[in-house]
Design a protein that fits this description.
By secondary structure, the chain is mostly helical. Helices cover about 70% and strands about 0% of the residues. The chain has a domain of about 55 residues. It has three helices and no strands. The longest helix is centred in the C-terminal third of the chain and has 30 residues. It is elongated, with a radius of gyration of 15 Å. The N terminus is likely disordered.
Length: about 110
């Protein structure tokens, strides 16, 4: 099982941009489609994609954490937004992974 340490800052805990809401809405839409018709999703292609996306977003959080050390407020702001968006995606992807690959009978 994957372990995850989600990075948060006071400003990075609440979604407040249209981009974050749009990305989260897309993920929620995909999750809803998977719930309605799980047989449509080929596990040999879907699970590796989900796993790769989790790792990608974790790397983005790591890079954003390093960027928080920047003296430039615009860079720090972008880093906070990246952490917020990536953490939301990680949560959704982990939910998909658990639902469809670790507990297939509970879908």
């Amino acid at each position: 099982m994957l372990s995850l340490a989600m990075a948060t800052t006071a400003k990075a805990t609440e979604p407040d941009s249209n981009a974050t809401i749009s990305v989260t809405a897309q993920s929620q839409s995909l999750l809803a489609q998977m719930r309605q018709s799980p047989s449509r999703f080929d596990a040999t292609r879907t699970r590796p994609f989900i796993d790769e996306m989790i790792m990608l977003h974790m790397e983005m959080v790591d890079a954003a954490q390093r960027a928080m050390q920047s003296p430039d407020p615009q860079v720090r702001s972008m880093a906070e937004e990246t952490m917020k968006t990536s953490n939301a995606q990680i949560s959704t992807l982990l939910e998909m992974r658990r639902k469809f690959f670790e507990n297939p009978d509970k879908g």
